[in-house]
Amino acid sequence: MEPTAEHDALRAVVRDYARTAIAPHAEAWDRDHHFPVEVVHELGELGLFGLPFPEEYGGSGGDFTALCIAIEELAKVDHSIAITLSAGVGLGASPIYLYGTEAQKQRWLPDLCAGRALGAFGLTEPDAGSDAGGTRTKAALEGDEWVIDGEKAFITNSGTSITSIVTVTALTGPGEISAIVVPAGTPGFEVQPPYRKMGWHASDTHGLALSGVRVPADHLLGERGRGFAQFLAILDKGRIAIAALALGCIEACLAESVRYANERNAFGAPIGRNQAIAFKCADLRVLAETSRHLVYSAAALVDAGKPHKLEAAIAKLHVTEAAVTATREATQIFGGSGFIDETPVARFYRDAKILEIGEGTSEIQRLVIARALGLPVE
Questions:
Q1: Active-site residue identified among 42, 145, 359, 378
Q2: What is the pLDDT of residues 343-376, one digit of tens each?
Q3: What are the distances in angstroms from CA 283 to CA 182, 184, 276, 294, 330?
Q4: What is the pTM of this model?
Q5: Residue 340: C-alpha distances to residues 3, 27, 97, 203 (Å)
Q6: Residue 34: which residues within 8 A CB-CB, separation 6 or more?
Q7: Is 256 a catalytic residue?
């Protein structure tokens, strides 16, 4: 779990970029629901979108821990930018790298690693969220083409001006779910209007409609009928990445709370003099410390090539729920100012709730953990 010199150097670079290029604009992007494409390009130039991929595909040749560090540092100033990176790597590029043919990797990975393009993963549907196996989207093989019909919901990075592909899961036979790559702009592939969300206002999220969408047969990703299993494996890493984002949120809330507790005066003294405030800050410090251990011990398992499903669920459950607690307590410390959108903790409060939902709800994490205990829970 000890960071390497390379990890420390990466953290310093991303922290500096986040503070100078993102933090000054985060409130405006949130207010205007603006997706900053230029930031994606800049993150690509820093090598962040290619962190865990080999150099032969345009990657940086780093490890999963490095990706978690980058996501954590970005989340300290803007959750929307952090999730753009997390989803772009974990859900956009990783399926291509892990399950794609050499031709698919050569075709799509270089632009995704460079931040010139974004990829998305279309799993969730209006009637299939936690029950992801309940996919209703269908794909029929007609000659040398897949014909896809269905709907997807809550898909991150799916409608930006630089989105190049969306990998969708679809029924390709009775009880058979496969993954198929759909290039943006394919006839019949409709990106629906962006959602009006409680948080993540600078993140791109859309529903998708597929009506008679035709793609070549060689756009099948991985083995036919293995799409659902592939997605579950991808989700385990994604849950650790979301926990890293939540860790950044907790640390930001801690820093903001300590600063405000020292600067804000009431009854003739800084409010941090009061145990009610000081103890809240102490509790935030504990949440940050425990969360850091869970995130990076799970990431270390990934880098060591060891099983990590249970550890990913534990990290995702604890750290995301801790982040929601941290934002609530930080907002309370800020008092009336914490209710004003221009205050970072107000934005973090709105942003944090989705962390308990996306890439596996807290309830699903408890299900994974309970089954690992040998309980016959359904």
A1: 359
A2: 999 999 999 999 999 999 999 999 999 999 999 9
A3: 46, 46, 11, 17, 11
A4: 0.97
A5: 37, 11, 43, 21
A6: 28, 202
A7: no
